Amino acid sequence: MMVRRGSKRLARLRNRLLTLLGYVPLRDLAKARSAREAQTVESPVMAGPETSPLDLTLLGASRPDQCGALPLYDGVDAMVARLALIRSAKHCIDVQYYLFRHDEVGKLLIWQLLEAADRGVRIRLLLDDTTGMRQDAELRALSSHPQISVRLFNPARLRRWRSLSLLSDFARLNHRMHNKSLSVDGLLAIVGGRNIGREYFGADTELEFGDLDCLLTGPVVQQVSTQFNAFWDGPDTFGIETIRPEDDLGLAALQDDIERARPRLDHSPYLERLASSSLLHALSNRDLGWYWGPASVLSDPAHKARQDSQRDWLIMALAQRMRMVKKQLVIISPYFVPSRAGLELLTSLRNRGVAIRVITNSLAATDVPLVHGKYRGYRRALLQAGVEIYELKSQVRRRHRVWRGSRASLHAKSFVFDDAGLFVGSFNFDPRSAWLNTEMGVMLETPALVANLDQVLSGILARQAYQLIWDAEGMGWRDPQTARVWRREPEAGVWRRLLVTVLAWLPIEKLL
């Protein structure tokens, strides 16, 4: 009896989720595709659904002179937001990501994009070749849909032998597009730190990346579209058809693959989490609670790797804003390698009395030990300058978790400037983001949103992070919950500590 009740409850949750997101079964999509192939459509853009949850939420809420922002702290909410945006599209969807995995989360989004394309929405999918190298066949099949275009940034010439490409063409391939955005109809956009994959959206029970996106509306969305167009038409972007002329897989086979994955989603606990999403509840009540204020997109130029001048690079805009800080600077970066120039900048701010807080990964939590090896060489100088450093724990008691995975790793990239400015984007405080990759983000001048983030961070730092200290005994990691002080990297085994010690000697900081 309990199993039957549980099944009925799950079915109700599933139906609620699919109803709110405007669910259309894939078998119906196949019928729609057949009907479309049987007739000529005069207009390249057909009308989408008459209404959607986001349409209804935006009615009466728009402020033409300001931008609305909604922080997406929770991975499940972040997935619901993306699904809702795609369902609300009537004319065009632009998708730009560094990673787009072909797992159940990626397939769920592709499924929704195909549905949008079948109702006449124009879709442009722009991915870094970090994804394309592994998914050429799938992306080529996707591009065979008349409403979908796929392009790759800075693709390798040797498609089957990536290692050989890196060896023969390292200087070029070392530059990657790390930008992350999704925009719909020039009205709504999501910008932040999340790639597309199960670990970013609460679908992985073993690992969850703690991340931050912002759902945006208002004039700033046009700026997101402008930077997308710059990359779409940029000199280092190529259509998937030129890279893989033959469509070996075919669109029908791709759709069959997605449909085969559906039963796993239908019976997955993740579906219940989606249906229980606080954002979905807000959508159903038509009350998102936007934070309103001025906003602007900051991004690197698409031709960053080709130009010598650094005046319009994102790092320059962020550094200038840091120098303007009067009271407080908060840096949230999973990969934190400040470099000598960054150390000098932070030290100069401390000498002016600016309070600085850095939040990054512990050795146990990081997914890139090589970066941690270089970061730890800066900790002592930063602590002695008076910079507060917090490192995220890897293991957290279930009742204290903000993120659902049994192991957590920070992936958010944000900066707080005094009590009013917040930058949310893809930029890590490391040499790779500064000088090699292209990055983007949104600068929000919204004190209420800064206060909201501060409240969220207070809870995380109290329960999910170690505070670093420097005293007579040297480096220490203090647990705010227990007041215990560790004298070695907590939660990290001997071999992991040894590995990082060895990696720290490698002369490759400029590549990190």
From TrEMBL:
One BP annotation, GO: cardiolipin biosynthetic process
PROSITE patterns in UniProt: PLD
Recorded superkingdom: Bacteria
SMART domains in UniProt: PLDc
Domain PLD phosphodiesterase: 173-200, 406-433
Natural source organism: Shewanella cyperi
InterPro entries in alphabetical order: PLD-like_dom, PLipase_D/transphosphatidylase
GO MF terms held by the record: phosphatidyltransferase activity
UniProt lineage: Bacteria, Pseudomonadati, Pseudomonadota, Gammaproteobacteria, Alteromonadales
Full protein name: Phospholipase D family protein
